[in-house]
Amino acid sequence: MDLSAVAQDLFDEVKSRYTNLTLGDADAQVTTDPQMARFFKFNFADNPVSVAIDEESVRLIYNKDITDILDEESEQQWYQFARTMREFAVTHNMNFKPQDVEKLDLEQGDFEFMSQVNTVKENKMHGTSKTSYHKLDKTKMIIRHSKAIDEDVPGARSRNISSIFVENKEGERFRFPYNYLSGARAMMMHVAKGGNPYDAIGESIIKKVEEIAQLRKFSQYAVRQGLVDENTLPYVEAATDKIAEAKRTLHRIAKQGTYEQTVEALDSNTTDLQQEDINDLKKLFTKETFDEDIMDAFKFLPINEFKKDDDETEVDYKALTGTAMRTAPYVNKFLSDPDNKLILKKDDSYDKLQNNLRSQMSDMEQKLAAVMRDIATRFLSADPQDDEVANFASDMETKLAAAGELFNKEDPNMKTLKSVAMQLANRYLQDMKKMQQSDEYRDEVRKSPEDVKAFKNIKGKDIEKGKLQKQYKRKYKDESQHFEAWIDSKVAEMNIVLESEDVVKSKYEDPFKI
């Protein structure tokens, strides 16, 4: 690997974002040559951050308390920068290792220290192989793990959680009802502030975690069962927004600087549902059977916002402009039938190419457009009506490719169309995965055109499926022999005879030989 080129690329990436950049070489000495640099130190929102590179990895080195120091907007920018560094590592075929350290500042002499750091310390958590501790003032969070912790694995103390306890300054211990760290951290801050799990704020914190759990179950159910369409999409999107809002609330409660103002505005009210509303939602989210476990999530959804007015009429999809919007209902119907297969023209090399291309794409819409393009160009079906699937994929690929272009006017129904496209892409990707595991399944979803539907010969007569190639091989088997015989007869008619002296030997024995 050319580490000098990587260093130059990293310098360009970081320099374009942050000033006051200090470079250190492999000997832990300050340098001004970007290609010699192996350590890059700069300030992120007045917080010292460093990036180190070696032959195998890119390490992002930062103070372990940085997220507690930053405000919410800067925190999101920090996570975005971390993702950028991870993408940089991936594009240069290197490992990415985020590393937090105890020191509040990283001086020039710390370059040598950073070059020797190979492990990541847990953020605020320590303990034994089966128990982790997190202290806040005189309050403590105790985490029991179902598996032994490997200290060399980043984030190990945040995984395999079997139970969480919050202990106050008197030594009273309360088991948090969910194995959810963000909620437990919020409860620990509340207890440290003098509250308890059973007061109004403590109950509101638990309700927020319950809200996240129920809405996640609801969203996963809708996507897994293929129930996301133009009618259910607003509810699914509302569930996603409510999850994000609840997580932000817990995150702010867990912070010293935002605790007070967040708990003052804390709202734990839920919607009182009428039986009529429950029945309507059941119809929307029922395929063949309804999962009663997701009914608890309904009370968190803004039901009244999505109710139709009495004078509101149903949408006539046939009257809508745009191929994708007209064909979307048929695609939903096609995907909901388990007997329907997404059959594409057989081409093993093209399948492999598509997998490689998608793995190199970082943007989700790019990947979605690539899948739509493949379906549009290779989809096969014996039923002409199923061509609506290819038509939808073709129009969606065009819309996705045009997104973000200058003067492009986005389709107002784009959210609805994307949800249908995602379901179609999900079927495509599931097929790709199953094909790698089973050659028999590959033969079911990858076929030649003549194996799917009948064709007509030159006389307009139907040729049975699978017989086209065989018939034409038989018909034109001796075509080359007949052509050569015809050429020989024409040459003979011209009566051309070449004498030996008329033939001049080329001065090149072999024109292709150098």
Q: What would you say this structure looks like, in words?
A:
With 514 residues, this protein is of the alpha+beta class. Helix content is 46%, strand content 13%. The protein contains 18 helices and 15 strands. Helix 10 (323-336) packs across helix 14 (414-437) and helix 12 crosses helix 14 (414-437). It is extended, with a radius of gyration of 33 Å. The chain starts with a helix and ends in a 20-residue tail after the last helix. Residues 102-123 and 315-320 have low confidence and may be disordered.
- The number of distinct β-strands equals 15
Largest sheet: 6 strands, mixed
The portion of residues assigned to helices is 40-55%
Helical segment count:
18
Structural class by secondary-structure content = alpha+beta
Query: First CA to last CA: what distance?
Result: 37 Å
Which percent range describes the beta-strand content? 5-15%
Q: What oligomeric state best describes the polypeptide chains here?
A: single chain
Query: What are the segments in which pLDDT stays under 50 over at least 5 consecutive residues?
Result: 102-123, 315-320
Shape, per Cα inertia axes:
extended
Structurally, the number of domains stands at 4
Radius of gyration: 33 Å
The largest beta-sheet arranges its strands as 2-1-3-4-5-6
- What's the rounded overall pLDDT mean? 77
List the helices and strands and how they pair.
Layout: H1 3-15, E1 22-24, E2 30-31, E3 39-44, E4 47-53, E5 57-63, H2 66-69, H3 72-91, E6 95-101, H4 110-116, E7 126-127, E8 131-136, E9 139-145, E10 161-167, E11 173-176, H5 181-192, H6 200-224, H7 233-253, H8 259-264, H9 275-284, H10 323-336, E12 344-345, H11 348-359, H12 364-378, H13 387-402, H14 414-437, H15 439-445, E13 446-447, H16 449-452, E14 455-456, E15 462-463, H17 468-475, H18 479-494
Parallel strand pairs: 5-6, 12-13
Antiparallel strand pairs: 1-2, 1-3, 3-4, 4-5, 7-8, 8-9, 9-10, 10-11, 14-15
Helix pairs in contact: 5-6, 5-7, 6-7, 10-13, 10-14, 12-13, 12-14, 14-15
